[in-house]
Design a protein that fits this description.
Elements: E1 2-5, E2 16-26, E3 32-44, E4 53-56, E5 64-75, E6 85-86, E7 90-93
Antiparallel strand pairs: 1-4, 2-3, 2-5, 5-6, 5-7
Length: 95
């Protein structure tokens, strides 16, 4: 499983941002926990293969589960809020 995170520059003078992305899985208690690798990369705006960070998780069985990804963007040399964005939850057979 793989998730990609990037940023879009709307009206900022900054050229780059540090993009961090992490896959998560929901446990039986309903809590989300990090899985796989955390991706972190300093990139230009716009996405695409050269301008994004990646998080990966190797499936170990076919047990169905709920997954999501969170992304945090820290624009270089700009003070911003420490909040993250979460994807919608999705179900996969990827224990």
């Amino acid at each position: 499983m793989s998730a990609h995170g990037w940023w879009e520059n709307v009206d900022c003078k900054a050229a780059k941002a540090v993009v961090t992305i992490q896959l998560q899985r929901k446990n039986r208690a309903g809590l989300w926990f990090d899985i796989g690798t955390e991706g972190k990369k300093t990139v230009y705006s716009g996405g695409g293969s050269a301008h994004r960070a990646n998080s990966r998780y190797v499936c170990v069985n076919t047990t169905s589960g709920q997954f999501r990804a969170w992304v945090d963007v820290d624009v270089v040399d700009v003070v911003d809020a420490p909040n993250s964005t979460y994807s919608s939850a999705f179900t996969l057979s990827c224990g």
